[in-house]
Amino acid sequence: MGCLLMEGKMLLVDVHAHLDIFGGEEEVAAAVERAAATGVKAIVTAGVDAASNRKALEMRQRFPIVKAALGLYPAEAAKLAEAEINGELDFIRSNRNKIAAIGEIGLDYMEAKDETDKEKQQKLFETQLGLAKQIGKPVIVHSRQAEKEVVETLIRCGCKAVVLHAFHGSLSLAKSAANSGFFITIPTNIGRSSQFRAIAKALPLSRLLTETDSPFLAAMKEQKSEPADVAAAIRAIAEIKGLDAGETANVVFANYQRLFA
Ligand SMILES: [Zn+2]
């Protein structure tokens, strides 16, 4: 007969969320509280531009389990003048003692209207990879229709501490990223994503992390994901790998600690 004891609280982590656009102050506070009650020990909320970078720092100040990642999203490359970019990077550098990572950064060719935009994105991406190295922080990387370019750039730059978030590249590319020591996140929408089921199956647990991209990537379409939902991602990974959920959570949490230490 199976054990009737309730599964204890798992050690959980959400390495990628956007709490600044989750909702009003009380809504965010309630979601963070639900996450903590579920066992989430850390939520890394990411900025994408000047305004959200400041909000990420505010969130970190308000909630002990919230960590801040600051960065400029690829689309910012076409929007900002060089002086504005440099100003924001100086701001990030000056807050290095308060941040857990540089992100959300990367390449997004869907957002690029021409080659010039792509070049600007590439330059912004590489500059931020340099900054991360300089201040000794991991990077949280977005890629869309540019997965190969992103992985190649990271390898070429000699980046070691890397989280590939919502990665939609091929399985062989995911494997080569893992072989380079990068981590790949499994989001809460894994149940309706053959891509993430395939990644969870193919990559060793030692290369996986969990994220919600909250409020995006929910388990159910049209719904809002929240940090507490990482528990579902852990259960899905455990099921795919034939492991115990608590054990899976412990390994993923240890991955987080190793990377963000
Ligand atoms: Zn994101």
What is the topology?
Blueprint: E1 12-17, H1 25-38, E2 40-46, H2 50-62, E3 66-70, H3 76-79, H4 82-94, E4 99-108, H5 115-135, E5 139-144, H6 147-156, E6 162-164, H7 171-179, E7 183-187, H8 194-202, E8 208-211, H9 230-241, H10 245-260
Parallel strand pairs: 1-2, 2-3, 3-4, 4-5, 5-6, 6-7, 7-8
The protein binds zinc ion (ZN).
Write a brief structural summary.
The protein is of the alpha/beta class and 261 residues long. It has helices spanning 25-38, 50-62, 76-79, 82-94, 115-135, 147-156, 171-179, 194-202, 230-241, 245-260, and strands at 12-17, 40-46, 66-70, 99-108, 139-144, 162-164, 183-187, 208-211.
Keywords:
single chain, alpha/beta, TIM Barrel, eight-stranded parallel sheet, 10 helices, 46% helix, globular, disordered N terminus, binds zinc ion
**Total beta strands:** 8
Helical percentage: 40-55%
Which value, in Å, is the CA radius of gyration?
18 Å
CATH topology: TIM Barrel
Judging from the principal axes of the Cα atoms, what is the shape? globular
For the record, what is the CATH homologous superfamily label? Metal-dependent hydrolases
Arithmetic mean of pLDDT: 94
* Order of helical and strand elements: EHEHEHHEHEHEHEHEHH
Q: How much of the polypeptide forms β-strand, as a percent range?
A: 15-25%
Task: Report the bound ligands by name, code or SMILES.
Answer: zinc ion
Q: CATH architecture, please?
A: Alpha-Beta Barrel
Structural domain tally: 1
Helical run tally: 10
Low-confidence stretches: 1-5
Main β-sheet description:
8 strands, parallel
CATH C-level category: Alpha Beta
Output the structural class: alpha/beta
Major β-sheet strand ordering: 1-2-3-4-5-6-7-8
